[in-house]
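In keeping with the milestone schedule agreed at the kick-off meeting, the structural modelling team has produced records for the first pair of proteins. Each record is given below as a sequence line and a structure-token line. The laboratory manager (R.T.) confirmed that both were archived under the project's standard naming scheme.
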Amino acid sequence: MEKTIGFQVLIFISWIALVPISIYAIYVQFPPAFNIDWPLLIGLTILGLVTASCPANINGVPYFLIQWVGLAVFLRFGLFIEIIVSQIAIIPLIYRLKLTRQDIYRIPWNSMMFLMVSFISGFVFLKLGGTIHSIDPIHMVGYGLLYILVNNGVNHTLIKLSGFLLGNRTPFFTMEDAWDYLIGCYVLPMGISLYFLCEYVGIIAIILLGIPFYISTKLLQLYGISNKLNKELSEAAHFGHQLADRLSSEETLDLFMEQVPKMVSIDGFYMIDRRKQTGILSILKAYENGQTIMKNVTHKELSKGILEETLYTEEKIKFKRRMEWESKSSDYLLPDTQSILVLPLSRNHEMEGILILTSKKKNFFKDYQVKILELVCSYFTVSLEKARYVEKAKHKSERCGLTGLYNYRYFDEHLTITMEQLKRRMISNLSLVMLDIDYFKKINDNYGHQSGNDILCGIADILRREIGEHGTIARYGGEEFVILLPGYSKAAALHIAEHLRKTIEQQPFEITPDLMENVTHLVVHVTASIGVSAALEDTDDAPALLRNADQAMYIGAKKKGRNRVAGY
């Protein structure tokens, strides 16, 4: 949740007002010993910094095991020194969080939380009888366990309270919290061992325990990354199957746009289309801050800047931070963008588009994530190509190759479905219009079949323009067309039919006669006879509705002089 500037300023003021004074008060009440072993303290501080830099990852959640060093420092040097070391250990922790400018308030916020955890843990330890710099097993183990339990409990409570105050509410106890307490069982013996060895062998103890501890955290990191990688690969494979199941290019693109931001938690997503013939670039789809948006960017803006190298090499590019790409023209990106990943989308060794992913965090895109995204992009391009082939095949099976209107087979199935909808009262009325071009055979005989085809296409254009989305238009036969009008009564359909008749009668058709010498351009006029039938007024049977309209057209329009409209 993004915080206001006033809220962030308040956090900084609170830190300035509370932390320095609190540390001074702790120094007065719990002063450190004067005979401080400085080499040992510096060594433990460095070990604390290294530990904070190398969290253990379990199920993708980082766990900072600074407590084992904190326990050793506390048992050896006391509360004040432990607080100072823990505050220093915040530095690598904050760095790993990769905070944006809007999240900078978390530095003083975490500092105050660390201070409270250290103070309450140490205060309880001392008030209940614990002794600093003691080798008594009771003080080392018993009170050490008390210290760790209080430390974990206070830390857990403060994290939940912090989430509540910052608007990131989670259940009070989760599996991540259970792991936190289990890790405490590991931290306690390691911290006591470190303190005990420091007492007897000095600074060498840091090496003796620090190296195996570092190796164990690295192994946990590798284990966590391996688990996460396997999980994401499994999700990518499942996603690939989902893409392959889509039968339209629009559905494939929408699913890709929906799922990729969820896979990598990005802030910006831009699908760049590259036209095959001209190479013109345009933003096909855009996603910013959790929402799909419209983004109008010119080809000139897109072809320069961060995409320029990819357009030339057709290779992916990764920018880790803003300073790497800030000099390039990329004004269409989110203003607080840091990391950018540019992935070419290629099919048959030819780049057809580019995918731009952005994040507000530095060093956001890990190498394994890039490989998974490349795999997902491969799934996407293959699925998109398949969907386009399916669309083309479906279009050919449903459409008339000459006019682009639906063919009779599709219309017959659609008519049956629509009639069922009428019977179930899903629509109120249903009318059918059948149209036949008058004297069409003479047109073919006098001017040639190509001229006849030109007129058929012209009639189809008129029907598309006049009917639009109000009905379904199909080429029924040679020069016959049918129009299905759901929701239209017979009277309304007759009105539409009359309007179509007049429009066709007044429309000049330009043809190029094949059978006339020295004539390359000719304007002709045609007329149409039209029949109208309606359900349930005339019939409740789909084939009968078609026959009735056909009968009305021939008996009521053709036989009575043509160029007229007749109802059944």
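The second protein of the pair:
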Amino acid sequence: MENTIRKWWVLITVSLAVFMAMLDITIVNVALPKIQKDFSSDFSNLQWVLNAYTLVYAAMLLPVSKLGDIIGRKKVFLFGLGFFVIGSLTSGISSSDLWLNIFRGFQGIGGAAMMSLSLTIVTASFPEKQRGLALGIWSSVVGLAISAGPLIGGALVDSFGWRSIFLVNIPIGIVAILLGIFFIQESERKSDEKIDFLGFVLSTAFIFTMVLALIQKEIHENYLWTDWHILSLLVLSILLLVAFIITERIVKQPMIELSIFRNWSFNGANISAFVLGAGLYGGFTYLTILMQNYMGYTAFETGVKMLLISGFTIILGPLAGIISGKIGNRWLISGALFIGAIGIMLIRHMIKVPFEWSYLMPGFVLLGISNALVNPPIANAAMSSVDKKQVGMASGILNVFRQVGISFGVVMLGIKLTEGYNSSLNKHFMKMQSINTEFKSQMLNVFHHAGAFAGSLIFDSKQAEVFKQMPAFENIKHIVYSAFNAGIKDVNLSIAILLLIGSLAATLLIKEKRTIKDNK
């Protein structure tokens, strides 16, 4: 009876930690305007409030997973919680954007430990028959945190100011630490295993440089992929990856057993996690821009609308964990991603100018069902396809694929949006006969410089004052909105393709689920 109660308290503990870790990836977005006002910082510095956390978080996922195997998962998990609480406190009292960025990096270390080790702890705490339900609840928390960020962030910022989004983590984190001390059991330490320091350094540097290259592309839209700022990082990341693979093949106690990638089910789960991050979670960024900058919703109102997606995870997530044990992970992952592709194509078909909520709502329902159903079987497929001694590293790898997928999706979908937006602008402005060529060129420069993300904000700026006096003003505004519509349609098509690739990969690669070996 005691063990039965204990394992559910373990799930509650790690769910609290995971919710905080994933929430801090998305919650900060809505606070950026007020942070910028308080610190009088420029936009490039401001973006590092987001990227400092994401970059360190992604780079540390693998090292903390392996460290947990070597010195104990409970110990590393609790240290991660402690890092996160300290990072949250110092972020909340930061006196400048520089210090805020540094302390966000501290949060990233803690977030990586909490996220990576939580999946391993849940897997080890539950017997195979209940593991699907437990992983379903865990996955629901992940999906809910990612999509509920704007809602929770908007409510906190509006009521208590931007510092509250960090300070609120302190009491929750302390409660999670106390629960963890009492209920989480320490894993069996591999006392004879030594730390693969070279593997640690190379894997961390590889992920760091790869994600940093994507961030550079995201921040500097005008940079081509061949720009040395980006190309040098990409080349370096490839060289580091090659060095890492060579190292892991020759050292006696590698950080990652490369044989794990001979497991097709494990590979299928990771591909599914990557396209889920790149397509669905990366796409949330641009759905948020659509609703706030073009439809006029506040951050809080946008968060409420996004609940139509995240809300399904509360009910369907745990059920998905149970269903995956009955029909198999492969078909549930494949079907869920296919539903997501239908949902995003439905939005693409319905959306038009002027934008209305009714165009998004049916697709949001399908995206919500997809998001709720897909996370539990992905986790289950990855963790049940490896031996127990490999679950720690499997968890780290799965989370890396998901997080790198999100970073990749934000960048690549942003490029598609900008290309579609600029192409449509050029085409429609050239057709306007009532405005001379020189003035059309000036207007195009203004709108190109503002970018697709500006939306209604560009028409409230000083640059647009001259446009408002023109008889063709409403036509110009319609052209800009139509250009964004063209771009978002390209984004939606790209998301659908990504989700269909994941659906096909799951069908072809993931085999029938097998039980994790429980032998010590």
